[in-house]
Amino acid sequence: MPEPTAATATPDAPGTGVSASLGGDAWRRLRRRPDVIVSALVVVFFTVMAAFPTLFTSTDPQRCIIGDSKTRPQGLGATHPLGTDVHGCDMLAQLVHGARPSLLLAFVVVGASVVIGVVLGLLAGYYLGWVDTVVSRTIEVFLVIPLLLAALLLLSLFRNVSVGSGAFDVILLPALVLTLFGWMGYSRYVRASTLEAKNLDYVTAARALGASDLRIMVRHVLPNAIGPVTALVPTAIAGVISAEAVLAFLGIGVRPPAISWGIMITNGAEWVTGGYPYLLLIPLGCLILTVLALVVLGDALRDALDPRLR
Amino acid sequence: MGRYILRRSLLGVATLLLVMFVLHLLTTFAIQINGNPALAFFGERVPTAAQLAAVETRFGLDDPCYDQTGNPCLGPFVERLGAYAQGDFGTNLRGREVTDIVATAAPNTLKLFLVVTIVWFLLGMGLGTVAARWRGRSADHGIRLTSVLIDAFPIFVLLLVYRYVFAVPLNAWATETFGADSLPALWFRPSFDDDHSWATLLVPGILLGLAGSAAFIRLVRASQLESYAGDHVRTARSRGLHERHVVLHHVMRNSAVPVVTAVGLTFTEALAGAVITEGMMNIYGMGGVLWEAVRGTDVALVLGVVTILAAVTVAVMLVVDIAYAALDPRIRYA
Amino acid sequence: MGRRAALAAAATAVTLVLASCSGGGGGDDEGGDGADGGGGSDADATLRLALAQDVETLLPMDSNVGDNISVLDVVYDGLVRYDPETTEPYNYVAESIESDDNTVWTIKLKHDLTFQNGEPVDAEAFARAWNYAAYGPNAMANNYFFERIAGYDEMQGETDDDGNVTEEPAADTLSGLEVVDPQTLEVTLNGPFAGFATMLGYTGFYPVAQACLDDVEACAVKPIGNGPFQVEQWDQGVSLTATRWEDYSLEETPTYGTIEWTEYAGTENWPDFQAGNLDFAVPPPAELATAQNDPDLQERFVEGPGAALTYLAFPLYEDGPWTDIEFRKAISLAIDRQGIIDALLPGERVPADSWVVPDGVPGGEAGTCQWCEFDPAAAKAALEKAGGWPDGEKMTIHLGQDETEQALFKAIGDSIQENLGIPYELDPTPDYFDRRSARDFSGPFRANWFPDYPLNENYLAPVYASGDAKNGNTEFGYYSEDFEAAIAAGDEAATLEEAVTHYQEAEAVLAEDFPTVPVVFSVNSYYYSENVSNVVLDPFSGEPKLRLLEVTNGM
Fold first, then answer.
1. C426 and chain A: CB distance < 8 Å anywhere?
2. What residue stretch is flagged as signal peptide (chain C) (predicted)?
3. Measured between alpha carbons, how far is C221 from C218 in angstroms, rounded to an integer?
């Protein structure tokens, strides 16, 4: 945002070019933290894996030979470096190809939810009146209908509809359901923060000075409200990745034969007590590592971006 | 305040009706697309047309609108509302009273949720406060790391490992040490026991609560960090108040607002966890009942159960909103 | 969520003698009161069993899944019961069951038997139960069992295509049922059927009291039986308790006092068994190896061959490679049955190489299927002979949503893909049965058969016979004149032995035509606690025979 801030009353914003300097400053702070670097590398690693699975394995994850069932991990260079699952499918190939649905789903869902939630929350909190009534009613209806019920109902509605097998097709239903039921939290927080911020002195001052609604919302109210939302985003991504596993367990997530980490964890969990812990630990380890990295990144980002916490 | 409560209650009822209508539309649509749920009654067998007609009549599915895709079936909806108003929630596809099913299932789920809520609140407020108070120190890092790890662990893995690896030996140990009917032996029973519902629900409730607690810990931490940076805390500190007093009265009390909101928000989300927990620990509860009902397109049961669930949720949200208004006076004039 | 379809209805077979290794009282003989049931039970002992949560009714006419059958087996007595070793029926409530022409059957009942409410168990008690079940609009699950009795068709009514009733049933009683006197029931069938007496031990043929029909809803929850146990309380979805009926007058009654069933949504009850809260359990696949290596548990293990056949069927009504017998052979030869079982369900299934369970029922024989071994080379050759599989197309395998079956059929699909190069996809559908009867399948599909009574005929006629030369049978469009003739010859045979031989000829026709591919037979197995002994599995349900069990208080 190139234009200078109008007569700002923000105590922490030192004069002009707030955003630019804040962003640059945050970047410099982040670069210096080793945990951030490591986390970023982890996220990049798995993202590359999701985008270009063939870089990591040339084995077809759908080629399963029952005679090779439950081969233990053989180490790098062998036919099955990470062993095989119950059906004799190669674990490494499954893990690599399973990254795409899991990560794609998480990013799509959280991205869409945040946008919907923030916009609606901001509007409701700022204008109140009928806008607020409509948004609040909608939020309440979605809060009252359990996500699981909606997922099941939608699934049973579309159970005879073939959605195809492309990368987006296999996550379409879970993404739709999780987004539909994922935005209300952001909306409520943003609405509450907007209510608070609206009464703050500097906002009142800005309004008195004739700043437009949009400008006040974006420049003054939003930064104030975005704090709790930023804190929620990493958890939300972790949440969606875990939720995918839960939906897979209930059989209403990514549709087989597509593979996802959740499906692998579900299948592996059965055998964890039977002497084949690697069937669970390998996909679960990847999931936890990714989630952990995302949370560290998110927290660091939040610390760096929130001016009031300096 | 009285007028505020009245207004919120009316809005709550409106929400409830809206939810029921949306669900009615969805289920009607599902029947119209996928065919007759009365077929489910016959399982593997192919019923004769006469048998099918008999079952349809028995469960009020004989209205022709169910055969016309796109028809909202308002008639049956109004009829159903009328029946609900008289306390008649109908029967499931097997002829069992919906109220009877709910009366058996609901207490177990409510008990489970109560344990879960307490765990959330205790862990969230406790660990969140510690993490915020000693921000950036090892306690903070440890708590955050642990909460992420727990969060990433799917609840079914937690329950599976508990049941198959820990429950049996713990139960054997407790039985040996304290006796078969002692409280500790019941705590570690691998499955729910209706005669000792509280004792056998405790561990599943704690595990389910644990799995969802990370969000609360992080929420409390974040909101308290903001409080620490807030003017009122600075003022309190500058007035020379004790740090403990500041934390208790200014920081923790303020952070309770988002936590209360979140408890209300998470209530219905916990249902997914409830389905899994109930399924794995063999608790006869609302989650499992609803799950089976949707899978069997048992319309009367789905709508009956959801209506009751929705009523409870609306009530909880009402209480939350009122508590919210009580904690933050500005809200109620909004 | 369950790993196995809840101990579903299964008729079983014979070789159950394994059980007797720990018979005769177990390790804990104190307090055994030595009453007529066979000795080792404590009169106040409680047997604790698991029950599937989908049990919704205990009405005999409406019960046909494994779990309510196993409850009703101790609550009701049927005309005949089955010998656990030979599966042959012997008269129980019936004094005699006789027929000169296999069409008109005279059933004489034992005297002075009563229901638990004091009503007499007479010919009328059977007639009222059967009429109720056969009446179409009552929509009883066991309705179809009565189709062999004269007058069945008149009780079904007519409806138009929209399901609206156009014609009420013309009759509300079976014309083929006649109560000659209180102890005599005469049954006239539509045609001769040598196996009729064999059917009569099934749940659907139990008698009911008049009080039961007066309030059917109450009776479905709290049955009025004539068996050795009466249902004390049923908290639906949670638990079911039955106690011994002290006035029981027949001989087959155990001496323990109470049976407690705990309802389970899935079959995840192994830890409860380990914790000592259940007397019988089956470990999940992952725990099998651990259980098999536990010497203590191995002493408390009982196993018997099951009789449920899982097979792969083809939409023969639809044009496709599968209409060529060579293609069906190729598929069958490409399936590594033993390898699949070893990997997924060790000890819980056996490879099938016949259409009737061998040794289990009269006329069952192993090895009637000559293309049921695993031979990839022969499979490839057969596929070539059939002209191969169309390039670039996927073979869809349709099945229901049971998780165990999905795993099994994924492995079958993998086997076919690997050995024949045919890419496949599974189509687990919740509308499996509707779609199957609507002929809505575009590829091979899973099918399964649980026999209802122990006779090879039950594996054959209900599945493959239709009498419809043009369209074939509904499910897969199979028709064979030779097959129909062999079945008819069996039905008309003078003795059961002769009938069985004719039915075997019908199976031989299947083996020639190869319309379906047998895959696996079920196996029944249980681990049991130290509190129970004399464990014998029921030839039908695969469940322990509760009437033979001995239970002590343990601990």
1. yes
2. 1-19
3. 5
At residue C311 the predicted structure's pLDDT band, cuts being 50, 70 and 90, is very high
User: pLDDT band at residue C119, thresholds of 50, 70 and 90?
Assistant: very high
Mean pLDDT across chain C, nearest whole number?
84
Q: CB-CB: which of C286, C425, C430 is closest to A159?
A: C430
Question: What are B298-321's pLDDT values in tens digits?
Answer: 777 877 887 777 787 788 778 777
ipTM score for this prediction: 0.77
What is the residue type of C161?
D
DSSP codes of every residue in A37-98: HHHHHHHHHHHHHHH-GGGT--S-TT-B-GGGTTPPP--TTSSSTT-B-TT-BBHHHHHHHH
Kindly tell me if the per-residue pLDDT of C250 is higher than 50: yes
How far is residue B201 CA from its own chain's centroid?
A: 15
Q: Are residues B252 and B209 in the same domain?
A: yes
Q: How many domains does the structure of chain A reveal?
A: 1
Asked if B40 has any chain C CB less than 8 Å from its own CB, the reply is no
Closest residue of C to B296, CA-based?
C430
Give the residue numbers spanning the domain of A242. Answer: 43-61+74-309
**C507 CA to chain A: closest CA distance, Å?**
31
CATH assignment of the domain containing A240:
1.10.3720.10
Contact A265 B310 (CB under 8 A): no
Q: Is residue C346 part of a domain?
A: yes
Q: Does A242 touch chain B (CB under 8 A)?
A: yes
Residue A33 belongs to a domain: no
Residue B194 has pLDDT above 90, yes or no: no
C286:A276 CB<8 A: yes
C273, part of any domain? no
Instruction: Compute the nearest-CA separation of C1 from chain A (Å).
Output: 7
Task: Report CB contact under 8 Å: C425, A257.
Answer: yes
Nearest to C51 by CA among C229, C261, C235, C243: C261
**Contact yes or no for C414 and A64 at CB 8 A:** yes
Mutate to test the interface with A, among B8, B15, B267 (most CBs of A within 10 A): B15
List pLDDT tens digits, range A219-272: 878 877 776 677 677 767 877 887 888 888 877 788 777 889 989 998 888 887
CA distance A40 to B173: 46
- Asked whether residue B122 falls in the same domain as residue B60, the answer is no
Spacing of C-alpha A129 from chain mean position = 32
The pTM assigned to this predicted structure is: 0.80
B280 closest CB neighbour out of C220, C268, C433: C268
**Residue A15 counted as domain residue:** no
Which residues in chain A are closer than 8 Å to C418, comparing Cβ atoms?
A: 63-65
Q: Nearest CA of chain B to the CA of A235: how many Å? A: 7
Do C414 and A256 lie within an 8 Å CB cutoff?
A: no
* Contacts with B36 (C-beta within 8 Å, 6 or more apart), sequence order: B52, B56, B61, B66, C163
Average pLDDT over residues C168-181: 89
Reduced to 3 DSSP states, what percent helix, strand and coil does chain B have, rounded to the nearest 5? 80, 0, 20
The domain that holds C340 is classified in CATH as: 3.10.105.10
Length of chain B: 334
For B51, the domain range is 2-85
Domain count, chain B: 2
The verdict on C407 touching A (C-beta cutoff 8 Å) is yes
